[in-house]
């Protein structure tokens, strides 16, 4: 500044000024700066009070505008970010806010960038860190989510039971038309039971007749060298 009027931009590097006549009102950092901002107990579109914490990444791309167009660009961008966040919260449903943080971040970036561009400031990105809801509502949402998971589990279990019943029906039709297949399946079931070192098996008397367990070949094939005790009922 020369006698209170802007003269020119200097730096980086070595430069000289005339004492008293010339002054340096601002030292401007052109690197990316991170600024935290929040909105406490702000009502969403569906009237739910929430508190939101976010981080703004920005940089000065025009030092002249940042010096002349706004008195304190640090405070200005902080207030602009907070008001933009409150506006977005008021136009967004709670469910959309919890599920679409990236979308909210993009909307905030566009709004803040439009407001700060005349000040020579460009917004790089906005990140929503946390969305806090009332404890009572949080418990209710947790119970709702748990109930939904239980409902889905029951639907999956019911569908599995239906599929199993259909397979059993198909197997029953196959065994009804093919007695040999039924005989082999029954023999296999007994064999699987004997594999667990069991020497005592209880089967219906009709199974003994149909599978010929009294025959020497049947006993040999089942026990594989071990003679089981078969009790008819």
UniProtKB/TrEMBL annotation:
Q: Which domain of life is it from?
A: Bacteria
Topology in membrane: Single-pass membrane protein
Spell out the SUPFAM superfamilies in the cross-references.
Band 7/SPFH domain
- One Pfam family this chain carries? Band_7
Where does it primarily localize?
membrane
Q: Where is the Band domain?
A: 3-145
Q: Where is this protein localized, as stated in its record?
A: Membrane
Q: Which family would the database say this protein is a member of?
A: Belongs to the band 7/mec-2 family.
User: What's the protein called, per UniProt?
Assistant: Band 7 domain-containing protein
- Organism this protein belongs to: Sporocytophaga myxococcoides
């Amino acid at each position: 500044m020369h006698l209170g009027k802007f003269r020119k931009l200097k730096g980086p590097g070595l430069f000289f000024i005339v004492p008293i006549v010339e002054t340096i009102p601002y030292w401007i950092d052109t690197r990316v700066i991170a600024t935290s901002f929040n909105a406490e107990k702000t009502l969403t579109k569906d009237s739910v009070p929430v508190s939101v914490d976010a981080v703004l990444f920005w940089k000065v791309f025009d030092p002249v505008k940042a010096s002349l167009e706004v008195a304190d660009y640090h405070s200005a961008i902080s207030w602009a970010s907070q008001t933009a966040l409150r506006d977005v919260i008021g136009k967004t449903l709670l469910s959309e806010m919890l599920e679409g943080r990236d979308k909210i971040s993009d909307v905030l970036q566009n709004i803040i960038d439009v407001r700060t561009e005349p000040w020579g400031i460009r917004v790089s990105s906005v990140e929503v860190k946390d969305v806090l809801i009332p404890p009572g509502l949080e418990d209710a949402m947790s119970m709702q989510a748990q109930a939904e998971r239980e409902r889905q589990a029951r639907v999956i279990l019911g569908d599995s039971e239906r599929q199993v019943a259909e397979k059993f029906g198909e197997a029953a039709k196959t065994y009804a038309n093919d007695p040999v297949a039924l005989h082999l399946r029954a023999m296999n079931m007994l064999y699987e039971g004997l594999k667990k070192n069991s020497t005592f098996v209880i089967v219906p008397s009709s199974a003994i007749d149909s599978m010929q367990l009294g025959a020497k070949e049947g006993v040999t094939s089942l026990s594989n060298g071990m003679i089981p005790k078969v009790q008819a009922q």
